[in-house]
């Protein structure tokens, strides 16, 4: 990891599409000890599996500049607002995170959360994009509750569903089982897009991919191609 809690790939095209992946890394800085088994760091509580590869492919093949997180959501959740109770979690999907109990949240916010969002705000201001993509992934089943999550892909939104409505139709036409504000509702959690898209009147797609469908690099490449096509469908529809 560099000093920054993110990396940016590609050059934003003014009036084009940009992307962000808030949970793309399982990196934990050396001065933070979470106190959990190492194998948990490869699971969904620590990282959105597959999202870094999808975002990289979007940038390198499709010209969609991307900002990709380089710190684990267990260090600080970049897809939360400052002051949110879940910004630094003490437990996740049934697992206690001992190192986060009594953590210096302000220090982590200053080191990771603020620079991350300030950098993306600058990218948005520079690009003035017509569309923002937020790339996430979800586990097929919640271990703590047994909740089944059968969708192949989900589209999340809060108040602005312009782009999501088009994308839901596009993914459905491809033959996928599509979640409409699933596996959770963007009306409850939409922090990054609330801040950088809705607040600026920019259409966006918050895309949730089922993790077993994007675990392999070859699958990540295929999904990046699909997402790029759907994003172009969205732009064409919104332009009419």
Descriptive labels:
7-stranded mixed β-sheet, 5 helices, 32% helix, 240 residues, alpha/beta
Summarize the structure.
The chain has helices at residues 51-62, 105-127, 162-173, 191-196, 217-239; strands at 6-9, 17-21, 65-69, 91-92, 95-96, 131-138, 153-156, 178-180, 204-210. The protein is of the alpha/beta class and 240 residues long.
Describe the structure.
There is one protein chain. With 240 residues, this protein is of the alpha/beta class. It has one domain: Aminopeptidase. It has helices at residues 51-62, 105-127, 162-173, 191-196, 217-239; strands at residues 6-9, 17-21, 65-69, 91-92, 95-96, 131-138, 153-156, 178-180, 204-210. The strands form two sheets. The protein has a seven-stranded mixed sheet with strand order 1-3-2-6-9-7-8, sandwiched between helices. Helix 1 links the parallel strand 2 and strand 3 (65-69). The mean pLDDT is 96.
User: What structural category characterises the helix and strand content?
Assistant: alpha/beta
Supply the number of structural domains.
1
Shape: globular
* Series of H and E elements: EEHEEEHEEHEHEH
């Amino acid at each position: 990891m560099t000093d920054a809690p993110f990396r940016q790939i590609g050059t934003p095209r003014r009036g084009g599409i940009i992307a962000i992946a808030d949970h793309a890394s399982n990196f934990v800085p050396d001065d933070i000890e979470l106190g959990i088994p190492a194998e948990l760091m490869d699971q969904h509580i620590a990282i959105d599996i597959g999202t870094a590869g999808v975002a990289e492919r979007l940038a390198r093949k499709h010209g969609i500049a991307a900002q990709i997180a380089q710190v684990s959501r267990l260090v600080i959740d970049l897809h939360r607002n400052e002051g949110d109770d879940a910004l630094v979690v003490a437990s996740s999907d049934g697992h206690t995170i001992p190192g986060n109990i009594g953590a210096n949240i302000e220090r982590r916010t200053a080191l990771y959360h603020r620079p991350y969002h300030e950098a993306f705000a600058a990218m948005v201001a520079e690009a003035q994009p017509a569309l923002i993509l937020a790339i996430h992934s979800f586990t097929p089943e919640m271990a703590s509750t047994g909740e089944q999550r059968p969708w192949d892909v989900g589209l999340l939104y809060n108040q602005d569903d312009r782009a999501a409505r088009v994308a839901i139709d596009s993914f459905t036409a491809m033959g996928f089982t599509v979640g409409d504000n699933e596996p959770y509702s963007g009306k409850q959690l939409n922090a990054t897009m609330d801040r950088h898209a809705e607040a600026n009147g920019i259409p966006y797609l918050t895309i949730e991919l089922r993790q077993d469908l994007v675990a392999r690099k070859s699958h990540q490449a295929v999904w990046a191609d699909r997402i790029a096509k759907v994003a172009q469908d969205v732009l064409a529809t919104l332009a009419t």
